[in-house]
């Protein structure tokens, strides 16, 4: 793959203006996969200049909505055609299983096609103004140059969540993947070029936090879309004030999963096992604090422990692996420190709680860990761990559940398990979260808006709502001479 060790600026692959590089590694082995370029301030300037130039280029600016839709559809087709290759690359670079990663590629292709359909539907309105002799109408126009800063947990999928609506609305973009997982984003740039995206419309800069910071602070960037931690999201808000650029944020979560007394326990165990360990727990939507009725908590915990204790750890390339590695040695140490804090604060480890040895010792693996005896105010019940750590909290009074679910700085996802769907809907209306799942796993669909309340972000990904953050409304007055 020619893109290793290069940036993509103005339709060309370049080694950049600096000499600094960084390694991206296979988290299952700790072995180096590739060496990538650390973009410099000059590279950021060059990418912004290329994107600005492309914004006014008739090849892009003058492209009809129909042709732009066909272009996005071709990108979706190419993602689908290369799903096996992309899935293997994602698995190597991020650690998730190959099958899971390939499924993510299919979702990315569908996302691109969904927004391909929107290119011909971004219509304005005629306003019923009360000024005699005047016509007023609106147009929806692109915001401009968009910096799309993506995380390491779903590298290509989240890049497409941002890229598809940005291109559908006619913007130009600079993609900045997480330094831990740049490889599939670089490959995506190749596929965009192959599909016929004009030079400068899609650019990719690799590197660490300084590159993201440089984009956020750059006066030539009109919008930032960021997915990552709430802490960094707050920094972006502060740093983007220079030119009052648009900002959309999809941030952290600490999703409560509420298991009511009448719940189907077997279904709740299965759903919470999968929902809690999705992508090895490295998902902002992962179910990560379980509130279980005290009369059912022993049964729930016993069955969940039984399912977790039989899970197979291994590299994403192995078809028998059920739990893969964490993304980096740094993140592994962070998850391990949270488990230690849980024990120190009085919670009991029922399953897991340590790194595996043997053949897996060289990778960044951590056993799926189940805690019981957890109190609502413990660190493991309040902080986003972002790993395979599941704390079970028993409750006696169901009237306290909504307050407990809302007692957090986050508000991305919540889950409710009960046979009483009417009660579940009443609770869902009271819970302060952007997404509430009733008797189901975390779900996504291109047509369903995705995002959070409170410290979980601003704005929405996916659906027609995503287009709002990538367009400006322009009003035009015409004197009709009346």
UniProtKB/TrEMBL annotation:
Residues 13-474 form the Aldehyde dehydrogenase domain. The active site is at residue 250. Keywords: Oxidoreductase. PROSITE patterns: ALDEHYDE_DEHYDR_CYS, ALDEHYDE_DEHYDR_GLU. Belongs to the aldehyde dehydrogenase family. This is Aldehyde dehydrogenase. It comes from Nocardioides eburneus.
